[in-house]
Amino acid sequence: MRYKKRKYFLAGRINLIQRSKIRELFEKAKKMENVISLGIGEPDFDTPDVIKEAAKRAIDEGYTHYTPNAGIPEFREAIAEYYKTHYKVDISPNDIIVTAGAYEATYLAFQTLLEQDDDVIIPDPAFVCYVEDAKIAEAGILRIPLREENEFQIDPDELVEAITKRTRMLVINYPNNPTGAVLKKKTVKAIADIAEDYNLYILSDEPYEHFLYEGAKHYPMIKYAPDNTILANSFSKTFAMTGWRLGFTIAPTQVIRDMIKLHAYVIGNVTSFIQIAGITALRDKRSWEALDAMRQTYAERRKLVLHHLSKMPHITPFRPKGAFYLWAKIDPELGMSSEDFADWLLENAGVVVIPGTAFGKAGEGWIRISYATKKSQLTEAMERMNEALSKL
């Protein structure tokens, strides 16, 4: 018997994953000249010097070897201290695992808690990785809409209606990407109560917790449903450390134990000297002073972009209270889909925005604008958009 020759073999599961629309637009724009990108959600600030110096020092001190799979104990203690200081939440360092950013944290949660025939509830719109992680876990995906009239918060009544006998997990992400929405305390408590009543895990992805405006506050889900919450967080946005790939997960003891087993076979451990730098990031006041300066700058940029968009034809912004994104509605009379509108702006204004459908079907009719960009570029981008849209 002769076998057909193939140059390579691919697992079928890889075909379940869709490439990120955000990355596709980013790469398309890179090939064009004179383009301003308001697409990628990455701080344009440099990592604070005190953190960079801590990493350099750690290398010189010999932190170039393996660490415990869960992370360096002192770093995990620093994370526990942070939650005690900021939120008055008592967490054992043993219930923390250091991960390669929040991306790995969410991946570990999906793979550890879900399997075929389990359901996961994911809001719509939502950040792009959740649905893809669910596909790899072979879980059923239930989407619940985030509505403008509810300020893009999860509606507890709709959440209860979506729960089935197979539902095992709910994903939440506040401050929210892409909408910039923030959860009110009463909604956080309601979700916590539902999770406890229906025995659900909550995967709460909270990397934008420090970027809040107009007096908004962040309420970590783990404070209200500690036995049901898997909290994913990251240093990427807080300290402008996107390329460092440093994050962590907090979860109930039995969950963390199994997440560590999987983590050990995925990456083993996060880079040792980067973990040491993470200790400095949390404990040195200069890190927090740098964060305060970034937050003030984002607030100014947010005000600038809202001002321009409010006067611009064919687009209406939702007023965000968190993160560094603006979620803007496209004039339905234009008859353009979100993708068509984003492509049109790129071709006619030289500005990259992300179509709302990159985040789910409920994102149709919207675009996401990142204001993690210098004021001068934001101003020029707004002027270009206004000029182009005024001709429609």
Automatic annotation (TrEMBL):
One of its GO terms (biological process) is amino acid metabolic process. Its cofactor is pyridoxal 5'-phosphate. Pfam families: Aminotran_1_2. It comes from the Archaea. GO terms for molecular function: pyridoxal phosphate binding; transaminase activity. PROSITE patterns: AA_TRANSFER_CLASS_1. Keywords: Aminotransferase, Pyridoxal phosphate, Transferase. Gene3D superfamilies: Aspartate Aminotransferase, domain 1 (3.90.1150.10), Type I PLP-dependent aspartate aminotransferase-like (Major domain) (3.40.640.10). Its EC number is 2.6.1.-. SUPFAM superfamilies: PLP-dependent transferases. Transmembrane segments: none annotated. Residues 34-384 form the Aminotransferase class I/classII large domain. Homodimer. Belongs to the class-I pyridoxal-phosphate-dependent aminotransferase family. This is Aminotransferase. It comes from Thermococcus celericrescens.
